[in-house]
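Subject: design request, 985 residues
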């Protein structure tokens, strides 16, 4: 939710590669192919090529005849080279190209013929210069205005998107009585269409019709191409079909439904209304009525195109429209009519087949292309490179790339962009670096739009240094556009690499180039992903000082970012500021704030934002209502939750499973069984039935009410479908345990453990508690070790279970109390000491000693409770020497032994048979140096029994009774026996 926008470098890297590859006039992208197969059902390779007796070459698979005069077709040369002119023209053109004084240069040349004037105009690439040249030509007394000159000037102005200058030129043309021709209209449709102004391009055809000019084939082809590129496939086909029967019908074409592409291209198009009311549409000479009809189609028969370019456009049209049969029919018609095929024809057909999954047909077409003497060009190999990559055949794609040079061609910009995209998308680092090295050797640069793609590959592989060096290298050669910087920053932002994104954001750029607002937006996103909210806010506040004002996306991103971080006050402030600036927040933005308030339990504030949302005319969606319903459900406020449920219905939003589940939770919290059951039955009617949350809510409600059979029914259904989760099992354990059904609770716990559902602290706690209740302390200890292995940190609930284990396991009350006190006070290693005690108490000594080593290596001062645990752990595991060393170390640290220390030492002495040590402790107890304590008495008794001195154990037992009964202590011979050292000591 941080950011609505996201600039994907992969998408930018492609930059409409499809359109670069596959436009009928821009076709581009193979390998060595073998084995041709049928094309669109024509079965190219079913029979060998043969010559019929009449001399016609027949391809039986196509079932079409191609006369020998068209078997080897001329290959059209698309390269544009400056024509060689004679006379004074070369010197004039050179002077105009190098000099600024256009008028003086032209005056020095003397009189130019109309043809020479046309050449001079055509060779001007600058729209400013062509206007100056044209003004000079028109200034001559003998100049006669002609349509060719105006066509040349209008084309240059249109290509430069200088619409005001074009309008003035058009008006002047009309005033001078120059009638527009088919070439004029074809050119105008072309330049407006290529500028993305599709509506205005089509209006020129309406203008043409009103002026009585019927489109020729070139104009028709241009119109079809413009509509095709605008993806108005049906209208393109309809215009072509009408033209074939001598009609131009555009009356019912809804121009408002035709998307102008110019807005995306950064142009400044005039509005449709302005265009209709301007001089452009009103002005232009009208031809005599007799010339309005199509004079070339007098017999009423359907006309057929004759130009190769027209057929190429139609094949591309039908291919992009998914009308494969129509594309095949056009191709077949070219063969039938003997229309010359060129490289573009085959490139278009190859792409059409390949992009519809018929790669074998595309390969068959390549074979036929070469058989007809038409050599594949770089664009052909580019197409196959893309097709193989899309099919996942990277080896074939790379062979296409290698073959381009092998056949004497050169990779172009599209080739390099395509191969880099293919390799980077698959993180093939070595191959990418090889291609880049080859490009450097040939003097080619990595295209700007490929830079984010390469950087994404390095970042995905964690090679941040390589990404940085690659970027720095290309920043030395080229100034990156704002859009490319945004794509690179977004690569880093998506990975939470805010510092790297920041380096690109603040990096060196050309003088006078300020940061675009989208760059600020992505930088805000990067800070938000890293939860650096202060930095994001500071950047937002400072952007105006650098001449960039926040836009709607900036505000939306900040609000969603702060809401996602539970900084709801800041989010609310930005929301207010956003509206004061005249921006209307999106539904998603309001939703983020409402959800944050609901999550934090601030429901009155959530309601305020909801009401504000409705008041400014933003319609709430199901997420808004879901947040409010869930918020009130969590607090058990059923009436409020139901109120918003009804409001949602008033807005025509259907209830989904999440909302109904939230209401079930609300009913569960107040113990309303009937309401919850009704909703649950309703969910059953929805597609997919109840989800795990709603089912668990019902199990929980039944558990709270003690309804075992009803809860078990839902639980068993979940188990049968394999959908039961940790909550389902934990709730059933809770139910069985509370009702004293410990066997059933243990069965559920065992199944949960075996099913691998112990993944979080809560699930571990519930299962451990169940085992503790049933007295299975060792199993509980094993679960604790598994919890530690999975790096699940124990919480308060876990320690509560552990203290219960210690008490049930027989650890002295004083020791448990001491550990609880240290844990509550947060003393160093208190938590580890508790865990160690649990392992020792349940007999898992290996785990205990491993845990013990953790705090013994600590470099901080430890208190007596930790040393007591170490003595206890070593003592119970039989490592008495280490236990006694711990006691001596404790004394070295000037820590006085306490009651728990003596209890643990008694255990150690008993196991080692060290009766003298026991005597010392008992003497201190007898002479009141140690306050009489029942736990210590019991520890001494148990120690004597461990040392097999049951007589002394019995004597101490009697003394304990006298001590706590308040009776007078009586000396006896046995007492003197205790005072004497045992034999051998």
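Subject: RE: design request

Done. Sequence follows.
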């Amino acid at each position: 939710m941080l950011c609505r926008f996201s600039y994907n470098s992969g998408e930018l890297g492609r930059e409409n590669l499809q359109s670069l590859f596959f436009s009928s006039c821009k076709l581009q992208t193979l390998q060595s192919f073998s084995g041709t197969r049928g094309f669109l059902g024509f079965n190219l390779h079913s029979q060998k090529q043969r010559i019929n007796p009449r001399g016609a070459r027949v391809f039986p698979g196509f079932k079409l005849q191609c006369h020998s005069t068209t078997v080897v077709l001329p290959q059209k040369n698309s390269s544009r080279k400056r024509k060689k002119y004679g006379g004074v023209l070369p010197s004039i053109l050179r002077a105009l190209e190098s000099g600024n004084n256009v008028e003086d240069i032209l005056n020095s040349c003397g009189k130019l013929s109309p043809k020479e004037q046309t050449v001079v105009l055509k060779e001007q690439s600058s729209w400013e210069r062509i206007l100056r040249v044209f003004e000079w030509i028109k200034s001559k007394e003998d100049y006669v205005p002609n349509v060719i000159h105006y066509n040349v000037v209008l084309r240059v102005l249109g290509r430069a998107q200088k619409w005001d200058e074009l309008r003035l030129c058009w008006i002047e043309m009309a005033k001078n009585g120059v009638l527009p021709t088919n070439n004029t209209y074809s050119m105008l449709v072309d330049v407006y269409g290529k500028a993305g102004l599709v509506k205005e391009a089509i209006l020129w055809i309406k203008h043409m019709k009103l002026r009585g000019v019927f489109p020729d084939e070139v104009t028709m082809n241009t119109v079809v191409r413009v509509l095709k590129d605008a993806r108005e496939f049906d209208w393109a086909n309809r215009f072509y079909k009408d033209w074939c029967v001598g009609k131009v019908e555009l009356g019912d074409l809804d121009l408002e439904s035709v998307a102008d592409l110019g807005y995306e291209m950064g142009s400044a198009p005039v509005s449709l209304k302005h265009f209709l009311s301007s001089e452009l549409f009103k002005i232009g000479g009208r031809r005599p009525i007799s010339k309005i009809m199509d004079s070339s189609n007098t017999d009423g028969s359907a006309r057929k195109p004759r130009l190769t370019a027209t057929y190429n456009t139609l094949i591309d049209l039908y291919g992009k429209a998914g009308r494969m049969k129509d594309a095949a029919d056009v191709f077949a018609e070219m063969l039938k009519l003997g229309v010359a095929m060129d490289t573009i024809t085959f490139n278009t057909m190859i792409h059409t087949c390949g992009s519809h999954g018929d790669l074998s047909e595309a390969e068959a077409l390549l074979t036929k292309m070469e058989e007809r003497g038409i050599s594949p060009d770089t664009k052909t190999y580019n197409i196959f490179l893309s097709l193989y990559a899309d099919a996942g055949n990277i080896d074939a794609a790379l062979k296409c790339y290698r073959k381009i040079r092998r056949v004497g061609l050169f990779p172009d910009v599209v080739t390099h962009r395509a191969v880099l995209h293919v390799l980077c998308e698959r993180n093939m680092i070595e191959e990418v670096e090889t291609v880049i090295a080859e490009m450097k050797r040939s003097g080619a640069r990595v295209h700007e739009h490929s830079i984010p793609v390469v950087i994404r590959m390095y970042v995905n592989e964690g090679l941040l240094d390589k990404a940085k060096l690659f970027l720095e290298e290309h920043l030395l050669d080229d100034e990156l556009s704002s859009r490319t910087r945004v794509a690179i920053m977004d690569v880093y932002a998506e990975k939470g690499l805010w510092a790297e994104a920041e380096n690109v954001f603040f990096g060196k750029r050309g003088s006078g180039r300020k940061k675009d607002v989208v760059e600020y937006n992505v930088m805000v996103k990067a800070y938000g992903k890293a939860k650096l909210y202060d930095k994001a806010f500071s950047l937002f506040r400072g952007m105006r000082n650098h001449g960039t004002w926040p836009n709607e996306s900036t505000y939306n991103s900040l609000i969603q970012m702060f809401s996602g971080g539970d900084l709801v006050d800041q989010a609310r402030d930005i929301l207010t500021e956003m509206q004061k600036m005249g921006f209307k927040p999106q539904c998603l933005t309001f939703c983020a704030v409402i959800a944050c308030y609901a999550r934090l339990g601030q429901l009155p504030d959530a309601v305020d934002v909801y009401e504000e949302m409705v008041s400014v005319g933003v319609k709430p969606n199901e997420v808004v209502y879901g947040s409010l319903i869930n918020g009130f459900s969590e607090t058990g406020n059923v009436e409020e939750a139901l109120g918003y449920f009804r409001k949602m219905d008033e807005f025509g939003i259907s209830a989904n499973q999440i909302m109904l589940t939230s209401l079930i939770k609300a009913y569960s919290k107040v113990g309303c069984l009937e309401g919850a059951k009704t909703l649950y039955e309703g969910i059953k009617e929805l597609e997919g039935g109840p989800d795990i949350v709603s089912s668990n809510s019902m199990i929980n409600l039944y558990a709270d009410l003690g309804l075992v059979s009803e809860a078990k029914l839902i639980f068993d259904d979940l188990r049968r479908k394999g959908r039961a989760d940790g909550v389902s099992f934990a709730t059933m354990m809770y139910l069985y345990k509370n009702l004293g059904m410990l066997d059933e609770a243990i069965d559920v716990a065992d199944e949960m453990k075996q099913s691998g559902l112990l993944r979080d602290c809560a699930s571990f706690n519930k299962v451990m508690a169940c085992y503790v209740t049933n007295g299975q302390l060792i199993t509980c200890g094993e679960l604790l070790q598994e919890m530690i292995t999975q790096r699940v940190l124990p919480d308060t609930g876990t320690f509560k279970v552990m203290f219960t284990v210690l008490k049930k396991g027989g650890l002295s009350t004083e020791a448990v109390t001491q550990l609880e006190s240290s844990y509550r006070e947060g003393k160093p290693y208190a938590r580890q000491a508790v865990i160690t005690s649990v392992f020792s108490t349940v007999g898992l000594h290996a785990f205990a000693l491993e845990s013990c080593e953790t705090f013994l290596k600590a470099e901080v001062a430890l208190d007596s409770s930790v040393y007591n645990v170490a003595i206890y752990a070593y003592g119970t595991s039989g490592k008495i020497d280490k236990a006694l060393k711990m006691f001596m170390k404790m004394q070295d640290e000037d820590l006085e032994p306490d009651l728990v220390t003596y209890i643990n030492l008694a255990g150690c002495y008993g196991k080692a048979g060290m009766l003298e040590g026991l005597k010392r402790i008992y003497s201190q107890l007898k002479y009141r140096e140690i306050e009489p304590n029942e736990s210590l008495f019991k520890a001494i008794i148990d120690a004597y029994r461990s040392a097999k001195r049951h007589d002394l154990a019995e004597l101490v037992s009697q003394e304990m009774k006298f001590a706590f009964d308040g009776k007078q202590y009586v000396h006896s011979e046995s007492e003197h026996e205790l005072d004497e050292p045992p034999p051998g000591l």
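The chain is about 65% helix and 0% strand.
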